[in-house]
Amino acid sequence: MSVLSLIFSIIYILLIAGTILVVVSENRTPTKTVAWLLVLVFLPAIGLIFYFVFGQDSRKKRHSDASYQKFSREVLSCLVQNPSQVDFEIHQHKVRKEYTTLIDLLEKSDDSRTTYGNDVEVITIGKRKFDALVEDLENAKHHIHMEYFYFRKDETGKKIKEILMRKASEGVEVRFIHENIANIAVSPRFYNEMKKSGVEVVAFSKSTLPWIRRQINYRNHRKIVVIDGKIGYTGGMNIGNEYVNEWRDTHLRIMGQAAHVLQSSFLYYFFCSDGKQITDFKPYFPPYENYSDNLMQIVPESPASPWPYLLLSIIHIINITQKYIYIQTPYYLPSESLLKALQTAALRGVDVRIMLSHKSDFFFMDPAIHSYYEESLLAGIKIYERHDTFIHAKTLVADDYLSVIGSANMDFRSLELSFEINSYIYDEKIAAQNKDIFIREMELCAELTLAAWKKRPWYKKFAESVMRLFSPLL
User: Fold this and answer.
1) pLDDT digits (tens, 9 = 90+) for 324-351
2) Which of 54, 155, 200, 332 is the most exposed place for a label (fewest CB within 10 A)?
3) Are 277 and 153 contained in the same domain?
4) Is residue 228 annotated as a catalytic residue, yes or no?
5) Is 451 a domain residue?
6) DSSP 112-164
7) What is the distance between the alpha carbons of residues 345 and 337, in angstroms, rounded to a whole number?
């Protein structure tokens, strides 16, 4: 061995050993620590690259962000001066007593104040969402703000792109945030055409966010549209043909005060993504109407939040649920704390049901997902699988009162790493609607039984055990 090779080997070993010490010293959950140690020990070269790209935890690295504080003050001043601003305290008595603690928890997150009186349409058919969005975009007068994880270069994406370009050429302010890593196959020419027409396009992943390092591990998984500050869209549907014609997903069309929360979230991340600065925010927060008696919180989550509010809120909801909790999710990869909460609820008599697809859109996800089935079934959790389509919906309904609809999957990445946004709706009518959707779709599913599940082949059980080790990294 040459001297150069010896020096390289020593540096390499020290780098691996140092990284292992860093992983151990970060005091993460044992599951995550063990997963990363396995990768580093058995696949050292690849593991080292993966750790520096995907593994470092920035949640604890946030510091005081003066630019965010300045932005919040300016936006808040617009909201306070809004002549239709409704003080939540006037309607606080309408919240069920057991859910006041959930509201208090979520209001500690950034821009998650409780809103009142929104018009909320729950959309479960992709074509309906697409048609409504097209109509609203065509009717835009002042501005269109759009932020999507996936924006496909297909028929659906091209149609939305053409509308954005045409509206920009007509004088409407159009701003667009795209997730750069997720859309890496989309050529710069696609976005340059939008820019030439007057659309302000920024790439989220290229931003120098003031409180987080640039890493492809932290992706913008949100789906947000705000039109003239009056109409908002958010939920699980991206822009692409599969969301219109193939997959089963859930989205929201919102009018009212909650649209202003979507607006605030969009504007801040546009600002952080090197977008052109806005000097007067007032035109983006016009007066709104009260359409109903519902109460609603829209909660943006990021890996730089001091606490994982979406994860904590789901655990809290499970703990306070008395009768039932029905969940739809594309991926079932619960953390240990979340799994224990679900098991505890089922064991104390709560009707816990989880609906997902028989096969996910990524083949390697299936054994990891299936590794959680047996211990869930043992506790009395009911699992339903759809064979006819892929369920991309991220929904929860509990006790005929609370509905949660958003972008976050029930997995480690969504609840701890990605930029997500969920809507929490405190309303009996909307809860009844979501419950009815779940019950009707159960007829399209096959319910798993513990006895049948235990009979699966040994090699599947082994694959599940192996992939279970890597579930915190998927």
Assistant:
1) 999 999 999 998 899 999 999 999 999 9
2) 155
3) yes
4) yes
5) yes
6) --EEES-EEEEE--HHHHHHHHHHHHHT-SSEEEEEES-B-SSHHHHHHHHHH
7) 12
